[in-house]
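Worked Example 4.2. Consider the chain below.
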Amino acid sequence: MKGIIFNVLEDMIVEQCGMGVWNDLMEKHAPADRVYVSAINYPENELFAIATEVSEILGLPLQDVIKAFGQFLFSGLAANHTAVVERFTDFTSLVMGIHNIIHVEVNKLYDEPSLPTIMSTMIDDHNIELKYDSPRKLCFCAEGLIFGAADYYHQNISIKHDTCMHQGAEQCILNIELKND
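Applying the procedure from the previous section yields the following structure tokens:
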């Protein structure tokens, strides 16, 4: 897992819970003196351990914490990679460009980024089907990222996530409905 993910996680936890909580989490779940550098890979078990404890602290299901992190993560990634986000005129073009544009750019920027496979299909003017596959099974983070992108582009959406790897499916299918205000 790239350090930038941990950097944004730190920002979220510090903003919402304070630096003391982040320091406690680091002491429990990371090697001594760990500093996350954005382009370096770190063990994903550190992220999962931190997220699990945050869910316990907040008394929320882990999937809700991961989804909230995904939503926060979009704004952090957008702020750090404005040139990539500025290539898209709206929410739909961004979602449709995940595989052919965003993931291509991520592969240029980061060595061995371990990206999920994401394929988006426009079903009609108001519906996008997004297929997600990853051994990490971070589909709830992907769902949060989609909500974060919708916020960024001021697009009202709903997501149905009825087909999920956490329920034994080979891949997740997220049905995104674009709603007109």
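The mean pLDDT is 93. Residues 74 and 148 are 5 Å apart (CA to CA). Compare this with Example 4.1 before moving on.
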